[in-house]
DNA sequence: CAGAATCCGACACGATACTG
DNA sequence: CAGTATCGTGTCGGATTCTG
């Protein structure tokens, strides 16, 4: 395992009691098909709609729009309308969005570290 | 913000290039309705089917069964069949499952820390 | 350029009933 | 006790078309 992952906190009530629904809420937010992709593509630099569209291929206009609205609704991205000659809209992460990006990067590390192992387990399991 | 969250790594290619699909895979694994709940309920102690069922209410038999099979397929939990008088099956997290639990707890902390703020942003956004 | 509106198929999930 | 089988439904998301 290439990267250190914090040891499991044995007394982690956050995941079980009241926190269970909270965690579910978060997973419903970032568990959809595109939210994490958008968050990662935004990163620290503000980007425009079609710019995000190209970077996040093969996302559709509809889903990009919907995803951005959802993220804006939750205070994770800001949408600023520049009133220039051709219409122009800038999207950027809020501080809260940036903190979520950090969490997502943890997830990404785990994903990269375990992707191969999971794939092996999967094919082994399916072989029966 | 009560808990420290590691600062954003600016050079995080894992999330963008090849890693993007990997992260999507992981989110498809834990993004369903019950996987994280089960993983958290298992924690460090092995548990039986109906035990998990009660702890994870209001999960249905069908979804518990399906979720456990998915987790087993990915090498996140082990299923051991004890051949006692009334049938008995024990489930436990594998090392890989435990490492995922740690990641999930990060997520949980973020969820707890930001739940209120997100709720505020949401109602503010919906007020228009 | 940045979207909204509509249509539609796939699949996730719940409810219920049955089995070894 | 520990599941499987079947059915019905809501919703997510893709394809396509239209607007300011």
UniProtKB/TrEMBL annotation, chains A, B:
<feature type="domain" description="HTH hxlR-type">
    <location>
        <begin position="16"/>
        <end position="119"/>
    </location>
</feature>
<keyword id="KW-0238">DNA-binding</keyword>
<keyword id="KW-0805">Transcription regulation</keyword>
<dbReference type="InterPro" id="IPR036390">
    <property type="entry name" value="WH_DNA-bd_sf"/>
</dbReference>
<keyword id="KW-0804">Transcription</keyword>
<dbReference type="GO" id="GO:0003677">
    <property type="term" value="F:DNA binding"/>
</dbReference>
<dbReference type="Pfam" id="PF01638">
    <property type="entry name" value="HxlR"/>
</dbReference>
<dbReference type="InterPro" id="IPR002577">
    <property type="entry name" value="HTH_HxlR"/>
</dbReference>
<dbReference type="InterPro" id="IPR036388">
    <property type="entry name" value="WH-like_DNA-bd_sf"/>
</dbReference>
<protein>
    <submittedName>
        <fullName>HxlR family transcriptional regulator</fullName>
    </submittedName>
</protein>
């Amino acid at each position: 395992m290439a990267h250190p992952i914090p040891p499991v906190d044995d007394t982690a009530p956050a995941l079980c009691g009241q926190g269970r629904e909270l965690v579910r809420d978060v997973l419903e937010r970032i568990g959809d098909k595109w939210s994490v992709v958008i968050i990662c593509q935004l990163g620290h630099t503000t980007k425009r709609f079609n710019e995000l569209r190209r970077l996040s291929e093969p996302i559709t206009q509809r889903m990009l729009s919907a995803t951005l609205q959802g993220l804006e609704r939750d205070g994770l991205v800001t949408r600023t309308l520049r009133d220039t000659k051709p219409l122009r809209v800038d999207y950027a992460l809020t501080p809260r969005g940036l903190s979520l990006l950090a969490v997502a990067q943890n997830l990404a590390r785990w994903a990269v570290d375990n992707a191969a192992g999971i794939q092996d387990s999967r094919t082994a399991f399916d072989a029966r």
